[in-house]
Structures are given as C-alpha cells and as structure tokens.
Fold:
Amino acid sequence: MGRGLLSLSLFHEKAVPYMATQFIQKFEDAAHIPVDTPSAAGVGIVSNALVIRGTGTAGSFDHTKFNSPADDKTIRLNSRDYTQTSGDSIGFQSKPRATGTGTSSVYGAQISPRFGSAVGGNSLVGVEASPILQGTTGDLTGDYRAFDAILEDGGAGRTITGVATALRVRSNLGSTVTGGAHILHVLNEEGATAWTSFALFETGAAVAVAPGNTTALSNMGYILIQIGSTLYRIPVLENE
Structure:
C-alpha cells in the first residue's frame, strides 16, 4: 500500500485492525488508486475530490456504496447548524455534466424506494420535501417553497425534439387504489393559515389570460391546457 493511502477494512469480509492515517494521497486518476485485494477498496484524492475505488474483481471498478449500519439509522449529509448570515447554505449538490455527444440521458438524482415482492406495509413515498420554520419568530423577506423547478438553457440555438416540462407525471399502476389515482392531492390545512388559492399566476403569464377574449362574459378569463395535440381553454370568472 502506498504511503498516505487509506485502506478501508470495513469493505473486507474479515475485519483487520484500523490504522491511523494522517493524510490521503493524491492520484492522477481513479485507475491509479491501488487496491491490495480484490474484495478491498482504496481511497484517494483525484482532481481535489475524494474518490473511493470499490472493486468486484482485481483491476475492475464497482459502484461506490454508502450503507447505514442498522435499519433504524440514516446517512446524514450536513444535518448541522449553519452560522453564516449571508450567502446560500446548501446541504448538498449533484451536478453531473455530459461532455460527449451521444444518445445518453443525464439524471441529477434517481430515488426509487420500494416494498419487496409479497411484502406489505403502510405508505410508500418517493420524496418528502418538508422545509420547516422552527419557532414563532424570525421573518423571511423572500419566498417559502417546498419545490423550485427551473428550466434553463444558454439561449436560442438548441432544438429539443421532445417536450419541456417542469413536472412530468406517468402512471404504471395495476393495483386497486381504493382512494382513487390522482395527479395531485390537496389536503386540508393543518395550521392556522388557510390556502389562499389553488394556483398563483404572474400577471401576463402566457398560460393564464385575464380577461379572456370572449363574447359571453366581459369578465371571463381562461387557462390553457393541452389534451393530446389540441389546446383547450378552462374558463375562469373574476372574483366578485
């Protein structure tokens, strides 16, 4: 083993005594990180990033895996206090970037919890976003959002053959759903503040027009939706 290289004995079937490590060695690339045995793993610094070289067989690469030690324990990233009073505090980032043209797709993250075959339980939730304002004091000068979806490009020039959406919903269900299968489920308020409306559109947004160009009612507007390849208008009336 090279000087300064940290060998993770927890990746080995038979534990060996831990060794004190003062630093982690830098390497040109992941292939140069040595691994003593096929079932072990090596750790090194490549381009100022910590790299764990997991191996299935000698000389090959495997996925890097982080597993909690028990079913009731989690892997926690930056679950700590932030004391800075300016700038953004970000728990973690994932920004993969394709640098070669081809037919591949790029995913920032994939989350797929599951119940095994013939295994039942309570609820199955893919992602829960629950930003919390703790206590009763401390004001925000900006927004309070659970999800923030932004579509961004470098300007005109590209062609996207498919569609561009901030949210895509697809059903592949075959189960009996007693409560019904819905795109969106809006629950009653639990706190003292009631919902103001179902949705908020900025004035002049292209998908919501008020008032609409109709002859039936002068105070009628509409929301555009598309079913198949046809656009439809959902009429809305001015609140009186």
Remarks:
- The two ends are 78 Å apart (CA to CA).
